[in-house]
Structure formats: structure tokens, C-alpha cells
Amino acid sequence: MADVHNTPAGATTSGSITSGPVAVAAESTVATRMSAPPSFDVADFPVPHGREEEWRFTPLERLKGLHDGSATADGSMKVTVDAPEGVTVESVGREDARLGQAGKPVDRVAAQAYSSFEKATVVSVPKDTVLTEPIRLALHGEGGTTFGHTVFDIGAFAEVAIVVDHTGDAVRAANVDFVIGDGAKVAFVSVQDWDASAVHVSQHNALVGRDASFKSVVVTFGGDTVRIQPRVTYAGPGGEAELYGLYFTDAGQHQEHRLFVDHEAPHCRSHVTYKGALQGQDAHAVWIGDVLIRKSAEGTETYELNRNLVLTDGARVDSVPNLEIETGEIVGAGHASATGRFDDEQLFYLMARGIPQGEARRLVVRGFFTELVQQIGIPDVRERLLRKIETELEASDS
């Protein structure tokens, strides 16, 4: 597996890799920053045509009108909320002051989602609350187009785990906000296990308070086209963000994850690790990692990594790590991108010890994902995802 760009603090690099039918783009530039300022108003964003930097990898024709305003809210989404005692769940209007605190929409689809939802869901956890069970939101698409907005308002020094599960068939555009109080600890798992025809575009905004921590694990399996944008900002010094992602891209699927970490407050930390496996003709995965360390963010420590394992011919990966540093007074910063095929030596080693080829192949892939699966601290979710990985690998063996 080729390793691209392990960059020390202050350095910038650019390049590309092509290996047979596997295409990889890798570069370090600020060009992935959005071309229009963040806004709640759809009119502030021109209709994209695919030439814009933020849309150049996305198959716009497969977004079912989410990008150009032709999509209408004609669908149905079954939403189930399982909240432990002490958690408040509210349906609110667009005028609620808690909406938008964590960040504004950064593209036309996110703005369309904000202007089109009927009611937003606000989940509030009081300060000093330590939950022993996770908050669970299950969203099941029942056809058509839906828009949504969810806010998790986490009080100071609270500790909470959140699981948002997406299943069924839908064309879905939504924003998810996390307003995390000082000293709070939040672990978030988002699972995209849609039916094969679903389309899902979502912006995740996290505002991390002073000395607070936020861990996000984004898992993407299903759907025809999925585009997720996790974004992190810091409200005070001492904040930590860990962003993990696991995706398994099958034939014909487009899965895109675009991350932005904005270090403006001093003495904060971020760590990003996304890993994907691809199999089948025209499987396409896109990963964009963008970290900005502003002049005021002295004492920052950050690192981002994307690794991709290509299991069959006909798959494509675009991996773009970006790092912009405006101050030299940091602890450390770097990034890396790696994409490659199966390690034949590993496979040979296992088969030489009597392990059948199919089982040996599954062991290698499971090992590749082990680091990320371990980050899911909720046993039933972790076991379900392990079963899903096994199902994907069985399909590739057949």
C-alpha cells in the first residue's frame, strides 16, 4: 500500500497516484474550502454544476434534485427516539436560538435542508449529567424526499453517547448540530445503512467547548450516493476532537466524506482516521480532510489519516488531505493518505499456514478495520457492524 504525504508542521505538498484501474488523487491545498461563505439562505449559494472545487467529485445527477432546488419534500421518514431519563427531546421551529449555534450551512444542499424542514429536533442533556445508556435516534426512510435538522445540546461536564441510525429508502438532506458545553464528553456514532437506492447528504457541525471532548464515528455501508460533511470548531482552549470513519463501497456506489477542522482557539487537539474498503465496478469513494490552524491557535496538535483498501478491479478512490498552518507555535501537525490493493504477502503467509484463501482474505480486511471498530464503545452497535463487514466480504467472495 502506497503511503502519500506524511507532512510535518508548516509544510505543504501535492501529487497524485494512479495504479492500474485504481485512481487516487492526493494533494495539500486550501482549494477545498467552500467557494461561498456559510449561510442559512439558499439564494446565497449558486446552483453547482460540478466544476466547483467542493462539488467536483460528486455525481450531481444522482442527488435527485437536492442541489438545484427541484427536490420537494414529498417523502416520509419514520423517526424513533430512545432517550434515557433526564434527557429532553423537543420539536421546535426555525426561530429557536439553539439552531445554528454549532455552524451554518456551507453549501446549497445544507442550506436547502435548513430552509425546508418542518420541525427541528432538539435533544438536551443537562449539565453534570452522566448517562449510562446511549441516546438513540433511528431514522427509517419510507420513500420520497425528506429534510431534517437535529441539535444535540450537551450541558457542561455532561457525559453522553449518541447513536443515529439510518435505514430504509429515502432522498435525505439534513444537518446535525452538536453544541458541547465546557468539560463535557460526547461520543457520537452515525450509521448509514440505507437501501441500495437511497441518497443521503448531511452536514455535521460540532462546537466543542473549553476542555470538552468530541468523538465522532461515521460508518457508511448502504445507499446509492452518500455525502457526509463533519465539521469541528472550538469555543475555547483545551478542546479535543477525534473523528473516525469506516466505509465499505460496493459496485456503483458513491460514498463521499468531507471533513473540516477549524483550529481557532489555542491548545486544542484533533485526530482524524478514516478507512475504507472498495469492491466492484465503478465503486467510488471520496475522502477530503481539511485542517486549518489559525494564527490564534497556538499549541495546536493535529493529525489526519485516510487509508483505502481496494479489493477488486474497477474501483476508484479520491483522497485529498489538506493542512493549512498560520502559526509556527504548535505542538505538531501532519497528514497521510494511503491507497493500495490486497497485501499478497499477508495473504500468502496466512494460506501457508493452512487457512483457506477466502478466510485469509476476510482476516486481512477485519484487521484493516480493527482500529476503527474498537472506537465504537457501544457493544450492540459494534457487533452489528462486524456482522455487516462479514456480509460484505462474503458477497465479494461469491
From TrEMBL:
Residues 141-368 form the SUF system FeS cluster assembly SufBD core domain. It holds the Pfam family SUFBD_core. SUPFAM superfamilies: Stabilizer of iron transporter SufD. Belongs to the iron-sulfur cluster assembly SufBD family. This is Fe-S cluster assembly protein SufD. It comes from Streptomyces polyrhachis.
